[in-house]
Amino acid sequence: MSYRFIKLKDNRTGLEYPYYLWCEDMGVLMEHTEIFMGKVIHDGVVDMFTNPGHPTTKFRWASDVMSFCRQKPLLECACSLEAEIIQGKIKTLLRYGVILLHESGTYMTLPTDYDIIDDILSEKMIYPGKENPEIRLLQWCENGHYYAKYGKLDVVIDGNQKWDTKVEAMKNAELFVKQINS
Fold this sequence. Notes:
The chain has 182 residues and is an alpha+beta fold. The protein has 2 domains: 3-122, no CATH class; 135-180, no CATH class. The protein contains 4 helices and 8 strands. Helix 1 crosses helix 2, helix 1 (26-50) packs antiparallel against helix 3 and helix 2 (58-70) packs across helix 3.
């Protein structure tokens, strides 16, 4: 499968925008959501159970606001928020036939007053300029667990994202990179 990435320029202001993934089918939308939004939602739900007082993630914060405004339980609102996010993308895709997906998870339709200034086809769902993100290993406190990041993504293998040694963390980060690039 090929992925089309486009870069846009606003004709009114001259501003150039980062690359967006051109999405015209449900398979690409679901794959993008899993890769780029799955971790955000997962971390938000984990935050609900590990930090009952104050939210530490954006998804948890949005769920808290929704819970307060709707006067509904937090977990119910988190599920509703996740459904509303994906439903909005699906409805927009079905209505317009194409949506543009940003790596942050946001999306838009192709504006009429924007020009496509770059158009790239790729065999992998990796945004241009992000082809070789570096693997970083983090340790939160001395003698603590190790965490790994691949570019902006947290490395998660089989639900685990912390390892006892630096060697284990690097090994799992390399496995993660192979998984998302295959």
